[in-house]
Amino acid sequence: LGAHYTPRAYVERLVIPTIIEPLRADWAAVGAQVLDLRHEGRDAEALQAVKDFHHKLCTTRVLDPACGSGNFLYVSLELMKKLEGEVLEALEGLGEDQTRLLMEGETVGPRQFYGLELNKRAVPIADLVLWIGFLKWQLRTVGLGQIGEPVLHAYGTIKHQDAILAYDRE
User: Fold this and answer.
1) Which distant-in-sequence residues (6+ apart) come within 8 Å of 50 by Cβ?
2) Contacts of 82 (CB under 8 A, 6+ apart)
3) Does 103 score more than 50 pLDDT?
4) What is the pTM of this model?
């Protein structure tokens, strides 16, 4: 099973080059495009380019095929939320209201993170770890009063199953 705790430094060795660096490269390209567009006086197109990247970030899916208690998914969520913070700052700098975006429900969140796990007890733990990470981020950034009801949603993105084999019985 390989069931053991993986330190954050090891998790980041995988998550950063496979998930975060490609997203950051795309974000850097958008940043260069925005500078060019603004220099040409095409502010509406610059704003749209950032909105398009934000949509891409908010719809990027992450899969951990042996998620255990969700450590890799949690770190991925946290790092993607940090990148989203930069994107929201850029939108605000272009005149977009962050609050309106958040009210539209377009944000990096647990629904994007998928996990498969053989250990039946680890599945709800991984799901809860993602939600705790997401709620911690919300508390730090928007405050308790902005957290909507229900607090948790059952997305069903963490599954109890084998990532390699499908079978009818054990």
Assistant:
1) 30, 34, 87, 90, 91, 94, 96
2) none
3) no
4) 0.87
